[in-house]
Amino acid sequence: MTDKQKFATRQIHTGKLDIPGIAPLATPIFQTSTFEFESTTQGAKRFALEEPGYIYTRLGNPNTTKISQKLAALEGGEAGMAMASGMGAVTTVIWTSLRAGDHLLADDALYGCTFSFFTSGLTRFGIDVTLVDFSNIDAVKAAVKPNTKVFYFETPTNPNLKLVDIAAISKLARETAPQAKVIVDNTFSTPYLQRPLELGADVVIHSATKYLNGHGDVIAGMAVGKADFIKDCTLFGLKDMTGAVLGPFEAYLIDRGLKTLDIRIEKHCQNAMKVAEFLESHKAVARVIYPGLKTHPQHELAKRQMKGGFGGIISFELNANREQSAHFVNSLELCTIAVSLGDAETLIEHPATMTHSTYTAEALKAAKISESMLRLSVGLEDADDIIQDLKNQLDRL
Asked: How many whole angstroms separate alpha carbon 43 and alpha carbon 35?
């Protein structure tokens, strides 16, 4: 593989394994816990990291190696790693980056479990945590401390679809806290639409459960960054702190999903734009939040930062009370009530009582997540059918 090859080629061919005497087109599943050594000398060299090779699947496996190399190539990073969940990726990277007494500066709109880990978990271990609106550069600058070691954010954010200027935050971090790492959760956009490392970030993380796998049958997380840092994450954050090891079969499924990432994301984006435009036109809808709409307050940033589309997630609010909103969701037939995203199926959920139930009322207000907000993960069905399902119930409000 070369850097000159384009995205679709890299997503299919990166990480091809060379197995002497065997040439499988699809990478086999290496369903083994441990690996044989030719001798004790070879075993000793591998444990001492003097010789490449596999020891034990908790430390590495050909299936996880392949998807790690593939995502690194797609994100434009030196190295990647795979973990057992999106939160496994968050915790592995954060535990590697911080020590007691350090300061974590994060955006105020985060995935619910990330929010809980930061505010209820890290603070138990002597880590100072500050949440601030990362779309306000001045507010971020004012919150930087001498001990700031991590700038952490999602963009677009979950679920209010606020955008954070990756290049601007990265520049600010270099100027005010050069010792800190800029860590970006790129789950909503994927490397097909947005590559944070190219905009100055240090580390990218993903819930690979979502678009990277794309079929709703895997729980996984991934991270990409400098080779030395990813090595530290593997040998300390993963091996010693979280143990969030991804199994070979799950890695195989992600490898399969990645081969079609570009065409799936294009369809998600096309469908989402059509659905967003429809929702914006309906009198029963009070507000639609989608980066592709000109009404999004950061639409120009979206056009600069997200290339080729604006993602498959829409958030919207109805001209209805909480009970009516719940009835609307419960009455949908094609759209499925579920809390994940990035699947072939269109999914809808109520963030305030589901994915962001860990937020207090004050935190929800600060993050601009209203109690009536609904999050729609637009799937790969025909867009007209998705729209008809929504219209049938909106017309009854």
From this structure: 10
Three-state DSSP string of 295-308: CCCCHHHHHHHCCC
| Among 107, 133, 185, 255, the one annotated catalytic | 185
Alpha carbons 239 and 219: distance in angstroms, whole number: 19
Q: What is the DSSP string of 101-157?
A: T-EEEEES---HHHHHIIIIIGGGGT-EEEEE-TT-HHHHHHH--TTEEEEEEESS-
- CA atoms within 13 A of residue 260's CA, in its CB half-sphere: 13
Is the pLDDT score of 20 beyond 90? no
Known catalytic residue at 303: no
CA 80 to chain centre: 14
Q: Which residues pair with 203 in a beta bridge?
A: 183
- Is residue 111 part of the annotated active site? The answer reads yes
Q: Which residues contact 194 (CB under 8 A, 6 or more apart)?
A: 155, 166, 186, 305, 306, 307
Banded pLDDT at 3 (limits 50, 70, 90): low
CA distances from 61 to 37, 83, 136 (A): 15, 12, 42
Q: What is the pTM of this model?
A: 0.94
By the 8 A CB rule, do 88 and 221 touch?
A: yes
| Residue position matching structure tokens 């083994």 | 32
In the set 10, 66, 108, 111, the catalytic residue is: 111
What is the C-alpha separation between 332 and 73, in angstroms, rounded? 40
Query: Any catalytic annotation for residue 133?
Result: no
List residues bridging with 393 in a β-sheet: none
pLDDT confidence bin for 369, thresholds 50/70/90:
confident
Q: How confident is the model at residue 247 (pLDDT cuts 50, 70, 90)?
A: very high
What's the pLDDT tens digit per position in 112-171? Answer: 899 999 999 999 999 999 999 999 999 999 999 999 999 999 999 988 999 999 999 999
Mean pLDDT of the chain: 95
How many angstroms from the chain centroid is the CA of residue 297? 22
Q: Which of 58, 174, 304, 396 is catalytic?
A: 58
Q: What share of the chain is helix, strand, coil (3-state, %, to 5)?
A: 40, 15, 45
Q: Catalytic residue among 66, 210, 264, 375, which? A: 210
- 267 is an active site residue: no
Dihedral of CA atoms 99, 54, 248, 257 in degrees, nearest 10, equals 80
